[in-house]
Structure formats: C-alpha cells, structure tokens
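A favour, since you know our structure tokens better than I do. Would you make up a two-line entry for one protein for me to read? Write everything out right here, beneath this request.
=====
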Amino acid sequence: MKIAMVGLGKMGANMTTRLIGHGHEVVAFDLSADARAAAAAQGADTADTLEQVVAKLDPPRVVWVMVPAGAPTNSTIDTLKDLLSAGDVVVDGGNSNYKEAAPIAASLADKGIGFVDAGTSGGIWGLREGYCLMVGGTPEAVKTCEPVFLALAPEGGYAHVGPVGAGHFVKMVHNGIEYGLMEAYAEGFEIMGKAEEFSLDLHQIASIWRYGSVVRSWLLELTERALAPGSGFERLEPYVVDSGEGRWTAMEAIERAVPAPVIATSLFQRFGSRDEDSFALRLLAALRNQFGGHAVRIEPAEAGATSDGKPA
C-alpha cells in the first residue's frame, strides 16, 4: 500500500526504509531537506509540504506521524485534519501521552477521519529486527493500516490492544518497565565492578549471561555491546535523561493506587544522576556527621576563604 511518513528522524527514517523494503510505497516528509534527500535515496517519494503529502496519496489515505510528542505532534495533526477527507486515517506513532488520544480522535472523527495510536518500540535496531507495535483505535481504522503494521513488526510483534488511547497507554507502561529493567542491570553490574578482589570482566559476564541465563534479554545484549572493549563506555558522563513515559507510568501507579516501587525508584535515580551538586546528599552527609561524628569530605576552600566558607 501507499503511506505517508511525516517525520524522518532516527525512527521515522528507518521505518520508511523498512516499509520500502517490504514492498510499500512511502511519501516521506520532514522539515529537514537533508532528511528528505536521504529518504529519497532509499526509494521514497518525498514531499516539501504537508499539502504535497496529502496530494500524493490515494484514498483512503494513511499518514503516519513520527515527530516529537506534544506540541509538534498535535500541531501536525491539526494541520492534517484540514487536508484529509472522510475515510482517511492518521497514525500517531510517537511517545504521546495516552490522555491526549481521545480528544484528538474525537476532533478527527468530526470530519470522518480515523485515528490510531501506535505505541512503537524498537529504537535504532528496528530497521533490522522489526518494531513491536501496540495499537489502539477502532477496528475499521486499524484494518486500513494493518498491512503497514505487519510490515514494520516482526512475526508476532503487532497487536490491536484496545480502543483509542490503549496503544499509547500500553507503550507508556512498557517504557516504565524498561526503566526498572535497565536500573537493575546497572546496579548489578556496579556491584560486580566494586568487587575488586575478583577482577571481574564485566563484558565477559554480560556475554555469557545472554545464553541460558534467566536474566537474558535484548537489554542485556545492549549491555554487552556497551561494555565491549573500545566502546567508549568509560568516556560517558553518568547523566541519564527521561523522555516522559517513566514519569507518566509512576503517576498512573499513584492515581490507581498500584504499588510500583521499582519503576518509581528507577525514575528517581535518573533525576539524581543530573545533580552534580546535590543539596540532599550534602545534607545527608552533614546529618551523619552531626549525630554520629561520621567523616565528611570537604571541598578545597576557595582563595580567601576558610573551609567553612567564611572569609579568611
């Protein structure tokens, strides 16, 4: 079938290439001329505007929006709403908040345009491995897009999980679980790294755990790659961002009174990685010193000042 891909970042560009490789025609659009040229080199028919995108599609048109969540996605869909017709479908494949899906779907439905929220997992490896797709929407809208879903996903990696909003909800929880899994690996490998008496080869351990171990996973494969000699791991700064889904999952757990300590703690650990001058940790050290006389580390005094920060 013929489909439009709006947004040619790391995910959108690779998805375009995978679709073309599976025999689909793709009209590709991005604000970047370089991104459009790269898609054209892979066989895509590019467009310079959203108006051109729609003009190059045949009804029922399917437009996959793969741009950053929030205002970029919402403004793109607003523009498409005025360009598309009844029977067409908009797919939001980004990491949008599931709570935004129902209002968007209702707005599009006023013109007879379908809406599908497609939680998409696969990252930069999706081109080769395929993308796990968690899809929400009406059966009619999903059916229109299904050939594309089947091409993007590996066998068994796509499901229509529920009505509008369900796809992004499931993807949100998926990413919350991902936070917890990554945190567990990070903590475990740090513990082994501190066992200096054994001189453990962490890359070797990650490699053997991939075979037969009950903790084997794709994330463990990525851990093995990250720890490989020459990977540049030692040059990485210990600063970890969060893209929203972990926060949303933790908030959902609170709102639904579901205990989710692992996911919540892994999110807070990411926050802690960003504070090079943590007031909380300084206060903890000071309190331990106050009640127990425990040693503290004092930063070198600036010129003209004493160790307590007062002028010399």
Summary: The radius of gyration is 24 Å. The CA atoms of residues 299 and 307 lie 8 Å apart. The first helix runs from residue 10 to 21.
